[in-house]
Design a protein that fits this description.
- The protein is mainly beta and about 180 residues long.
- Helix content is about 5%, strand content about 40%.
- The chain has a six-stranded antiparallel sheet, with no helix packed on it.
- It is globular.
Length: about 180
């Protein structure tokens, strides 16, 4: 995953506040099952940052306090620009939360699909107009799911961004149980 050159995200005085993660891909060829990629956020408590998520945000859901929302959800990749978008208002998350992991899972209806099977995939993480990271999933082309970003609350209570793309070969249901490992 590429990140802003010359700017150290961890040196920002106020940490990360409000972030948008956007995902896009081209639709499937005519007559074949639709490609359906899903953004997923897992939120972990400070007391158990690597355990089970306190809650998940994905299609048809939002965080209990409204700080993480999926504002756009596509099941086909049809349309122009962003197909899925998730907003994370980290600056509004309760102090009990210390880690948020964001991933992408490919729905496996109609047979196994990997990132390499889907044309023009792209993910972007931004804070306002600043691009924090961008990736095309080429490094994880054989994977069916990937972690794309991690946010951790530091000892001052500020959120820090850690870009990375880690691929997994699993279905979406199993992915949510292991994405925070």
């Amino acid at each position: 995953m590429q990140h802003r050159k010359g700017i150290s995200v961890s040196s920002l005085n106020k940490g990360i506040g409000k972030v948008e993660v956007s995902l896009k891909w081209d639709p499937n060829p005519a007559g074949t099952p639709a490609h359906d990629l899903d953004l997923i956020a897992a939120t972990y408590t400070k007391d158990d940052p690597r355990g089970a998520p306190a809650y998940l945000v994905h299609f048809d859901s939002r965080s209990p306090d409204g700080t993480i929302t999926l504002s756009r959800d596509s099941r086909t990749g049809l349309g122009l620009g962003t197909d899925e978008a998730m907003v994370l208002e980290l600056n509004r998350l309760a102090d009990t939360y210390g880690r948020v992991v964001v991933g992408v899972a490919i729905q496996q209806r109609g047979g196994r699909k990997t990132f390499g099977d889907i044309a023009n995939t792209a993910v972007r993480v931004s804070e306002g107009y600043d691009e924090l990271a961008a990736d095309d999933f080429s490094a994880v082309a054989g994977s069916t799911a990937a972690v794309i970003a991690q946010f951790d609350r530091d000892e001052r209570g500020e959120w820090q961004f850690h870009p990375s793309v880690r691929g997994f070969d699993t279905d979406p249901e199993a992915f949510v149980t292991i994405m925070g490992d």
